[in-house]
């Protein structure tokens, strides 16, 4: 079975932290770039962070310095560590794997930043 499963979302206060996980199965995980996207209500889905198969990273300007993307190839899992969360970070966060012929998406996990 080929799938990505996100976990770790929830409700957090401004300034708080969350760690999202993306567990992959059925793919050669270490061969593919992984990414996190998010979509706020009424807005387009946006790229948050990318980590290549080689471990290089890129971040949206809005999260740079606050979020960290990482991967553990032995566990077939990608992570998004989110610190200093702001209400503007609220949205559904999706894990993505850039496969050879298509993109594989997780089901999404809700992150709500509110006091």
Describe this structure in words.
The protein has strands spanning 3-7, 10-12, 18-25, 33-39, 46-51, 57-59, 67-72, 77-82, 91-98, 103-105, 109-113. The chain is an all-beta fold. A hairpin with a 6-residue loop joins strand 4 (33-39) and strand 5. The N and C termini lie far apart (39 Å). The model has no long low-confidence stretch (mean pLDDT 97).
Q: Quote the distance from N terminus to C terminus.
A: 39 Å
Instruction: Please summarize the sheet with the most strands.
Output: 7 strands, mixed
What low-confidence regions span 5 or more consecutive residues with pLDDT below 50?
none
Q: What best-fitting shape do the alpha-carbon axes yield?
A: globular
Rg over CA atoms, rounded to whole Å, is 13 Å
Residue-averaged pLDDT: 97
Secondary-structure element sequence? EEEEEEEEEEE
Measured as a percent range, the helix fraction is: under 10%
* Percent of residues in beta strands: over 45%
Say how many strands there are: 11
Count of separate DSSP helical elements: 0
Class from helix and strand fractions: mainly beta
Keywords:
mainly beta, seven-stranded mixed sheet, 115 residues, globular
Topology:
Layout: E1 3-7, E2 10-12, E3 18-25, E4 33-39, E5 46-51, E6 57-59, E7 67-72, E8 77-82, E9 91-98, E10 103-105, E11 109-113
Parallel strand pairs: 2-11
Antiparallel strand pairs: 1-3, 3-8, 4-5, 4-9, 5-6, 7-8, 9-10, 9-11
Summarize the model shown:
Helix content is 0%, strand content 52%.
């Amino acid at each position: 079975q080929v799938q990505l499963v996100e976990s770790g979302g929830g409700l957090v206060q401004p300034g708080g932290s969350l760690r999202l996980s993306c567990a992959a199965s059925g793919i050669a995980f270490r061969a593919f770039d992984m990414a996190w996207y998010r979509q706020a209500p009424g807005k387009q889905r946006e790229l948050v962070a990318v980590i290549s198969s080689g471990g290089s990273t890129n971040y949206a300007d809005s999260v740079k310095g606050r979020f960290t993307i990482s991967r553990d190839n032995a566990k077939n899992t990608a992570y998004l560590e989110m610190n200093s969360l702001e209400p503007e970070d609220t949205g559904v966060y999706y894990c993505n794997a850039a496969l050879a012929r298509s993109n594989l998406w997780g089901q999404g996990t809700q992150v709500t930043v509110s006091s």
